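note to self: dont lose this again. the chain is below, predicted strucutre after it. 491 aa total, dont forget to put it in the shared folder this time
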Amino acid sequence: MLVPNPMLSAKIRVPPWPQRCHRYARRVPLDRLTAQDVTFLHLERPHQPMHIGSLLLFDEGPFFSEGRFRLDEVRTAIANRLHLAPRLRRHLLGVPLHQGRPVWVDDEHFDIAYHVRLTALPRPGTHDQLCALMGRLQMQPLNRERPLWELWFVEGVADKRIAVVQKTHQALVDDGTPMDVVNLLLDLDQEPSEVEAPFWDPEPAPTGAELLTRSVVERMTVPGEIIHGMRSALETPRQLVEQSVSAARSLVDFGRKAPGLPWNQPLSNRRRYDLVKVDLERVRRIKDQAGTTVNDVILAAVTNAMRDLLMAREQPVDGLTLRALVPLSVEDPTERMALGSAIIIEIAELPVGEPDPAEQLQQVSADLARLADDKRAVGAETLLELSQYAPPTMLAMAARLIAHQRPANVTVVNVPGPNEPRYCMGSRLLEAWPWVGPTDTTGPVVAVVSYDDVLWFGLTADRDLVPDLPYLAERLAAAIDTLEQSEGSAP
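---
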């Protein structure tokens, strides 16, 4: 949780206003959370952690020496690279009286052993055991009094593998840098690169009085920026009108409720996790034959699998169209292999009422093309920029309203990753499964990461609401087979 807000003492002496402005203007700007980051914090609940993660698998050999896991060496290797991503050694600090968004401050008691841990599966470490462990670890919220990330190394996985469970809060990864904990863990070459870590001297955190004063000064400068932005916008009225229309369309899209399904309910505190592996070349052949995109094929496969799942549950599907929340990454895929938050968000329609998989693909492709033409994603981006000026209380209220909406039946996240292999401690990364947790009422999540010419699907859902998630994973793999064999997939 955030650090409690201290009350200001009435005895604090405050210098005159011009002197204060001059003094704090010369200081280095605070590493303040963005409005989107704060929204993630407000949405977080004990049953709804707002971190993302991954499940990585390596050969276990290089991680062992004389029969023991090289935990100290792993911790040292990661600690030596933390200066490349400063937020990995920072924790949250709230502003007194809620007069500004929280800031990141250096953790003077940072302990690498807290963040890099070792656990083990009981032999034989099967697929089901690994998925169950993944669900349990990912359901534990990150401690906000410490830097918001964890790495769990897992011994005892079948086929002599080592698993790494990664957890990173969404508020942490939105810092605009190409580095995160996954990048620090992985090397481009099999021979681990030696990094000389500079001496780290943590900056002392500002006092409550100083933090409040600096926040007030910053907020007093915002109106000038708003006036400047309005003046620039008035010089190009056509762009202003287009952005307003796009923002309005985004609001309409997100405000419209999706069809009610049994899994669009408040979540419990238990998760189920399952995996699907698909060769990327197969998906490329499908998209080339149909004249679509890789993302279109993924959404069409989800559409087909959802139709099978509903029919297996004896739910009516005729004429049914589901709504999918589709956050699309706009990062450079050569720079990141993590689910960053430089994204645009769309609401896609999944025609589960259409029985022909090839026609499903064409309808999905046409819908995504329509969304791009309407620039609705740009509208959502505009809303995020405007929210930077929202008072923290208003932002909290908006986050709570979002949590009680039902804008989608399922979430599909597709993030491109590197095709070249990656290594850790000299061991090649063999499998890279993503984790994105569901939120209240929005249904299961299908997260996809491409790596080494393979699409790695990580499916996450509430254990009580979607106990048949393994069946959905089975039908998702079958949907790729069906699309590949369909003669009618060509436009």
